[in-house]
Amino acid sequence: MKMKYYLIGCLFFLVSCSKDFLEKKPYNALPVEDALKTEADMLVALRGAYASLRNVDLYGRTIPVLGDLMADVTYQSASNSNRYTFYNQYGIPVVDGNALGMWTAGYQTILRANNILSTSIDGTANARQYKGEAHAIRALVYFELVRFFAKPFTDNPTNNGIPVITTFDITVKPKRNTIAEVYALILDDLTKAYNLMTQTTNSSQFSKYAAKALEAKVHLFKGDMTNARTAALDVINNGGYTLLGSSNYLSYWQNPAPLTNKLETLFEVSSDGIANLGFDALGYIYSQGGYGDMICASDLYTAYSATDVRRSLLTPGTRSGPAVFVNKYNNIVTDRDDTKVLRLSDVYLIAAEASLSSNETDARSYLNAVATRRDPSFSGFTSTGTTLLEDILTERRKELAFEGHRFHDLNRLKRTINRSNDYPAAARTIPYPFDRRLLPIPRAEIDANPNMVQNPGY
Amino acid sequence: MKKKTLLLMYMLVSVVWIYAQTKTVTGKVQDESGVPLANVSVQVKGTRLGAVSAADGTFSLSVPSTAKTLIFSLLNYRTAEQSITTSPLTVKMVAVTDNLSDVVVVAYGTTKKPEITGAMGIVKSKDLENKPFTSVDRALQGAVAGLQSVASSGTPGASQQIRIRGIGSINASSEPLWILDGIPVNIGDASRLTTTANLLSTLNPNDIESITVLKDAASSSVYGSRAANGVILVTTKKGKSGKTKFRFDTEVGYSDIAYFNDQYRPLKANEFFELAREGMVNAGLAPATITANLADWGFGNNVDFNWLDAVTKKGTQRQYNMSASGGNDRTTYNLSGGYFRQEGITLQSDFERWNGNISLVSKATDRLTISTTLNAGFVQQNAPLSGGSFGNPILSSYFLLPSRAARKADGSLNITAPDFGPGSLHNTIATAEMDKRFLKQLSARGGLTLEYKILDNLKFTSRYGIDYNVLEEEQYNNPFHGDGQSVGGRAFVFYTRLFNYTWSNILDYRTSFGKTKAFTASAQVGYEAQDSRTLTSNVAVTGFPATTQLTFPVVAATPTQATATGSDYSFLSAFSSASVNYKNKYVITGSFRRDGSSRFGLNNRYGNFWSIGGTWNIDQEAFMANMKLISQLKLRASYGANGNAGIGNYDWQPTYSYGSNYNQQPGSAPNNIGNIFLTWEINKPFNVGLDLSLMNNRITFTADYYIRKTSSLLLDAPLSRTSGFSTIRDNIGSMQNKGFEFVLNAIPVSTKNFQWSVNINYANNKNKILSLVNNQDIIAGIFIRRVGADYQSFYAPRWAGVNPANGDPLWYKDAEGKETTNSFNDAVRVMLGSASPTYFGSVTNTFKYKGFAVDAQFYYSGGNLVQDAWAGFYMGSGNGSAFNKIFRQYNERWKAPGDNAKLPRYVHGGNRLAQNPSSLYLNKGDYIRLRDITVSYQLPASVASKLKLSSAVFYVRGTNLFTVVRDKQLPWDPEQGVSSQTNLNVFIPKTITAGLNIGF
Fold first, then answer.
1. ipTM of the complex in this document
2. How far is CA B118 from CA A274, A335, A383, B703, B704, in A?
3. Mean per-residue pLDDT for A346-366?
4. Omega into A433 within 30° of 0, i.e. cis?
5. All domains of chain B in start order, with CATH
6. Does the distance separating the beta carbons of B728 and A170 come in below 8 Å?
7. Chain B residue numbers touching A3 (CB-CB < 8 A)
8. Distance of alpha carbon B691 from alpha carbon B703, whole angstroms
9. N or C: fewer beta carbons within 10 Å in chain B?
């Protein structure tokens, strides 16, 4: 009978250990409450937020590609991998995958930044730096989303913007904030970022002056030239960055790695040999060794003078007819090209444009600082007034081509987009306003959120 | 020395003494009609001495001279006693026809047939042994009513899908739970590089004694949260006491394509170029461009290579199995070993298995029985790529132009431009020689069981079981041609280990009570813990030296992946079941189980599952006593609740994951929103059944009707993406399956020398989605999940034929089919039918004449549609112009105005999106197939015994020998996985084998 009790005892042995027995933890993840407890955790989470910017529908590819394709900088080759075809044609459907991807990845990145900003770790310089960077990342993403999914601030700031989300809540079903409210958050974030940050790690992380450069740009997009000039001059005069010249221009673009020497790049999104998008990387859609779909518009190519160093990154060739290939991103194996987001040349051109109404000499000097560096045989612009404005805008198109700026510039200026004959005949003149100049709020968002209002025309 | 000699002498003497005190009794055991009975246990009454009858019914036994009576016992026969009068004795045994004593393996034990209240199907070893299938799940096709077992690939070692009583889940698993000798085992495809693999392929079907398939609540709910998709109980062979029996099985054979539609053969060179030229003219290409393109494609190079012939071949098949079993009345054992090799019918598809099995049962004391089983198998498998991979040999045989030859004129492999430059489809003849893709899979499944009879009617069982699987996968892509070319060669070595243990402790109690002990009752309580752990590690490299002889990562220049991770789950369960039996007339059963699992959310960690069942054995009623015609009449009903825990191991946990790295520094991100309420899906099956046996079981009939409703289906509810997440997984939807199952067994003719028996089984099932997230349609590829409709409904425009005037493709613009359009985008998508068969089953005829037997099983299935998912390329009216086409495209295309053609005008680059999915590419899936035909001859016992054999059987078996389909346009084999979608997989084979089974 003793045996019997022993065996029955065995049965109950298991009961006592039951609680631990059912605890199984994933190998690659921590419970949310354990993930952001220390300053070191914040840094790790911050890298996760930066990595999120590499998403294919953010700076990984879609943001820079659309900024040119929807304007007059690049067109889709007739032989193509069927990516971004609708944007080439200006026939974007409401279920478009890239618009959905940008919306989804954008708010994912915002969540990553929000979680860092929600921690109560504050005391140290490092913690302040990390929070400053998180503020800047959040500002950057809101700035991109509001420019793609809402009308320009310069049209009417009370128009529908995008929802402003600053804390995590899975039940949220937000309405659209006004454009002005979104810009207010962006500027508030950038002020905090500027004040909190003290460290410059490298060009792939935000620093004090990268945040200020972004602030200059945000003011420019508000049409607030005074503040844009102030911010841009702060970067130019106090940032310690040097402008890219013509001799180091090619090596600058060939380098796939982040910089620590404060040359030109204020902020870029890093891809490396291991963490990269492979066939979806930016270089692959430009390089003829990859998909090579995006071709330089022929009128842009002819706009570069023969002595312009920027022209050396463009190669005329044949692809379903004559085509100008773009060699700005040629690192398609091992370490991939980083995506430039904020460059000092951009800040100079912002300074030029923002100085126009107050100080034309300054405007010309900032413009020529860029223009003469690209074309050593060019002695500089001497234009004034509206001609000078046009010269500045043309220089922006040429300098920032293939980096996704032109479309937004034409939007904030509320100008018609005049595309060359390379584009489909039905999509060569895109007037302002035009519904398809806004991306659709993704149908998945409309379906899940009854408070969401669709953009007109979708 | 002296001592030893003495001892030896003593032993000799004693042997002589024993010899002198015994006599030998011989004899023969037969059934009522004189057919010899094998495996009859013959025991001397009052002793433990015994023997077992041979295949010819003969036995021989040394008995003490004092012995007077022998006891003969055999399952399903009435135990007989015979006094030892003469020798040889002839003993006739009477078959039990009251169906009371049949013992059936059920959940956590065995039971007698009258006490069964649920619905189950039983498959015996003879239907599993020596089949040309790499895994036992393949052998279940057609064996059990309501169990659908389908392959999607004919690759040896490929995974098999099983659905019992329809599909019961959308996002969780729909596979049944497999229990091997009481131990839940991991099943499915655990490979990560291999196209298709199957954990069960390491198990030799010849080691299986029986399989019980549990289909309803009463039979399966005691498995709780994992019973929703049904349970498959596998019992391996155990030894029987008596003389050691050896058995040797061997078979060899070859295989070929089971079903091939000649209308879908790839085009020959002249046919292709005629079509290509016409397509370019129709597309309005300039003559110079046409000439240039044709030249590019090799027009006029006098090559007409048949890629399909080149990548397919006759497969070969052989297996050897050996076993020894025996023991005495205290200890029995069964040992077996086997070797199995199958070469598939395409390049790079082969499979080899070595396996061994040990089973030992020992009665340590009168109360304690110890048993152990260990079943181990090692598989080496080579599976070609499938689907759209450029290296898929089937894809290449349909897509590569006939003007491209595998080899150059000098016999060397053609792997360079112009035919096979970078970016082109691969020369799969070359990659088959130059690349490597291996899976090595080792499994060990076994357990130790202690059974202790605390009282005569109270038994304690403790079982510890393990299930251990290791997979090593090696892939090498050479630097010269194919997938490795762009990176200078690449290789992967992936390691996967699954370790799963279960410890069960069970108390069984049986008692009788009431007046004249009319009531018998049994009760069971148990406790079970299961823990399953998976470890994976990956190595990937690029940059190989310029040779194909060095294929391992060690020689490569650049490591690109070096990582390892794991995934675990655990279950902790308490369970009980009980049954009350009144004179075998009325039986009520019930079960209850409480399951906890690491997979369930913190707030829903434990679930309760139950069942109740009842049986009325009408044949036991007094008023039936005189109805000799009816030997069994039984009504059954059951209802209950069980669950589907086939959900993600960590789905419920809100987590931050690591791996969002930046500048090669670790980064973290919220990756899983989690749901602390997440839990199992609930399945509530109702079953009512009838069992009828007539004329001493010459006709038996079973019918079941079931309706099962699954609710709390895991679905992804959309979230506002501004939250940072797209969806949250929650228990939301519901679905219903209902259907009938019939099984008829009959022996129309039975004489002394000739017997004909028939088995027919039939099942139908109707699936219906009852609710979804906000009841919104979910569109998943070509399928739509819509409330009220079948789960696997195809949703695409209806094809309206070809416009005779201009050859345009036409679709219907409205659901009613009134108006047609030549614009695909204007065509309306409609529900076209389901990928799930509405009915399926089998018909088996067995004829026996003396030693000859013919066994023929037809499997049939139908009511579904099959999608040819790749037809848009080879029958897409010009889409994919640079790829080869099939004969039907060539033969049925529109050519000139007025043609009443089946297929549109062929236009280079495609004709108005004719290639897009529509009903044109859906075919009726109804078919009937000669699944198995076996002709065997058993050597007469008299001849066998002269050869010192107890039995010898020679057979020839054909598998899938012919297939008849309803839709003559069905392009590929009708068996295309549960979702009925073709994927350019290795053809399902037909196989002819010849074999020999010898027992001695």
1. 0.92
2. 56, 63, 93, 12, 10
3. 97
4. yes
5. 20-93 (2.60.40.4130), 103-248 (2.170.130.10)
6. yes
7. 452, 454
8. 7
9. N
